Amino acid sequence: MVKDSKNTPLRKSSTPYKLLLDKDTKLPNPADLIAIEESDAEKYVYFDYEIIDFKGRTITIRSGWRDTYNQEIILINDYILVSCNCGSKITHLCSHVTKLFTRMIEKRDHGYFERFKSYPFTDTIFFNKYLTLKSHYYKDVKAVPKPEFGHIYKFENDIDAERFAPYHSFFLSPVKTKEEDSILVSYAIAAHYDFSIPFLIPCKAILNAEGNAIKSFVNFYNPEFGQERLDSAGKLLHGHSLDFNKLLNFETVHKHYRHATNEEKADLRHIAFNYWKSIVPLLKDQRNLFYHSFYNKLSYKGNLPKNSMRPIALTDDRVSFRFILSEHEGHYKLRHNACINGQDFEVGEVLPAKEPFFFSLKHAPELFYQFFSPEEGQAIGELVKAGGIFTILKNDLEDFNNGILSKLTLSYPVIFKLSKRTEPLGLTVKSKQIRVEDQGEYVAFIPSIVYNEGFDVPVQSGGTEMLQFNKGLFHVVQRNKADELKFKTFFMELHAAFNKQEALPYFYLSKETLRTELWFARTIYNLNDPNVTFTGLENLTGIDFHIQLPDIAVNVQEEKGWFDIGVSVTFGEVELSPEEIQKALKKRSTTLYLSNGKTAHLPDVFFEKLDTVFRSGTITDKGVKLAGQHYTLIDQLYNKVERPDLAKMVAARDKLFSEQENIPLVPVPDNLNAVLRPYQLIGYSWLCHLQSLRWGGLLADDMGLGKTLQVLTLLQHLKNKGFSTAPHLLLAPTSLLYNWQEEAAKFKCAGFSWNGTGKGYCRIK
């Protein structure tokens, strides 16, 4: 093997490298197989390869021995492009590619790639849609139809037309042997003693001669190889068993407890518990159901001892629990009962014993119910382990309440049988909150009432009364169930899906729903209740939308008859520019895509507050500039208590505007040699009124009625009063500029100087 030149630049092994194919062998020429020497190149004596995928013109080969890598080979007429996923940096070829082709040459696999240059591999569309690769003899592959297509007519003659006949031949009704009749499929809930996660597994059993009872058990078997004659319910149960096999691996489940961490065990337990929620309704009618516990590996071979298979039955009837704390001399006792339709029953057995999923009642020991949650199973399991009773010394009651009882009183009704029982004290509501928890693809919502006495109570919890301690003394307090129900009902109205989740300890929505419906922003906007807050929003992951509503800040400043309105719209650290605000207002869409890639919700107040202002004003770098005559539009942009100056200005302008019909006539300047007609005097006075408001106006008298005189009179009035020191700009057709000068001279306008340009405008000072 030749070393690479040190001067050749390095490249990644994943970059395709061109190799010419020998005309005779149709494999790369040995002289072209150049790679860097590696210290562990001969680490393994054995080396093998196999095709694992084909797509388009690309073959994927896995090669090596214990350490394997994938090589992709692109076929192009008389050469190939080859790459490897080993991650090496090399100059020509990595050692894995070199080994692969060297071994092909040694094994004389001449023409190895040629078959992939002919039908059906060359028909890319046909191959990708209908075919797949299947192992064929030793390390070889062939193109076969995908399972969902079965056989394909006229493809490699897999279908024999002679096997299709127009008529059925005569045959007798099938007769089953006694052995076939006696074999049946039953199911077991199995759990390892030290890894208490029960799972469903099928097993074979043999019936007795009468066919009414099981004679013996054969063995468990992998549900993947289930009998084809299963009915729909059996196939569904096998499917659930397959899910358990993927989760726990029946072959190695007996080793899990040695290696899995407590967190891993807890995760597996929760997943399995949810599996059982779906399975129990299917098993309630199953006649042949058993419970099997084991220490060592599951028995896939050999007969199962009949005494290891305990017959049980499952039901999905809902059972609730309640507790009784009774006072005795020197101590208290805590008991529990299961409740069905208002009737109390004693709990019998729990399975598995260490981490219970199921329980029975003493009056029906073979019928098992599933706990509502793993946590409920753990709690009841502890009580069952204790013989059904917890005894608490009086001096330990406060510690017991802090560690155990307070948790039970949140979720379950607790009856307090005390020697000096008094009326419970009612708790008073302080605030309401909606706690948010990230649950992978879902978000859970827990509406809670916060009481002034320090209790934070989820409204979906089932408790009613609790103990409250103060300086060693305690009294019974009662939750405000009416307010809790009211808040729960209010929350359920926030989304239709919540109505179906009333019985759960939480509400939930998928993150996809939250994204598409922008639920958070809409809900926070519609709540409109300062006493209701969301908590835990900062802990959500995978949320690509801005949860909170935007902060909208407006600053109004008046200057020279104009309003400079600074507008700030921010979503967290993202601030919209005035142009972005205007664009959003024009689109009228409540959905906005932010520059950070998130989606945001624009509430109604955004449009109500800013739409008219942005349509009537001119965009600036800080917001919008609004003409003075639009003063009525700013009324909704400021707080009158915080800005009394603006409130006073608006009121004054309202008064002036309302008095337009009664505008006082303004005297004509004495130094103007003109007598204005009545309608000209009114027009001139109206122009003076507009000037006092710093408004513009349009004098639309017919031609020849003295509009020039009215404007000259206004200019003279402004000059005499000293209201204006800056020049006035007159825009007019060039032919009329001299007319203006003549009119000014005619009426002897005093103190005017003209600076005409001859281009259609002039300045008058």
UniProtKB/TrEMBL annotation:
Ranges for domain SNF2 N-terminal: 679-747
InterPro entries attached to this UniProt entry: P-loop_NTPase, SNF2-like_sf, SNF2_N
Top-level lineage group: Bacteria
Record-level Gene Ontology MF annotations: ATP binding
Protein's recorded name: SNF2 family N-terminal domain-containing protein
Natural source organism: Pedobacter hartonius
